[in-house]
Amino acid sequence: xxxxxxxxxxxxxxxxxxxxxxxxxxxxxxxxxxxxxxxxxxxxxxxxxxxxxxxxxxxxxxxxxxxxxxxxxxxxxxxxxxxxxxxxxxxxxxxxxxxxxxxxxxxxxxxxxxxxxxxxxxxxxxxxxxxxxxxxxxxxxxxxxxxxxxxxxxxxxxxxxxxxxxxxxxxxxxxxxxxxxxxxxxx
Length: 187
Known about the structure:
By secondary structure, the protein is of the alpha+beta class. It has six helices and seven strands. Helix 1 crosses helix 4. It is globular and about 40 Å long.
């Protein structure tokens, strides 16, 4: 799917030994002004994690068949953004403790640094993530959740072809909010 955007990044899977960069990009994402409506984790929670957490996260997302993290690497080896694909199996529970009824991909942790937004990096990340997901046997659907107060992300997902699904997750907290499921079927 070519969306006609130009960027100067190479998109690839993260490598296990790149855990410090995985950590740095995640902490940058959690410091972004949109983080409270984009992530289910806070900066304070993430920065308190030991290095062993980040090592395991990078290793598990580098070559596994249940999760894969993709990164857009720009000039000067800068990491411009990232997306992670989780493979959900029937009978398991998703991140909102709801039962999974079909094998599907779940895109999480979408982040592009502000200076790379609008350049096609997000599209390139999604193309790589979905190409990997569609290559897995029996996987015919991808989904993600978007916060009800994140119209920029919602608009991108719609432009990319995602449509509103049936799932709605209520987020705990002082100001109750909802996350809407968006789905995309394999072409």
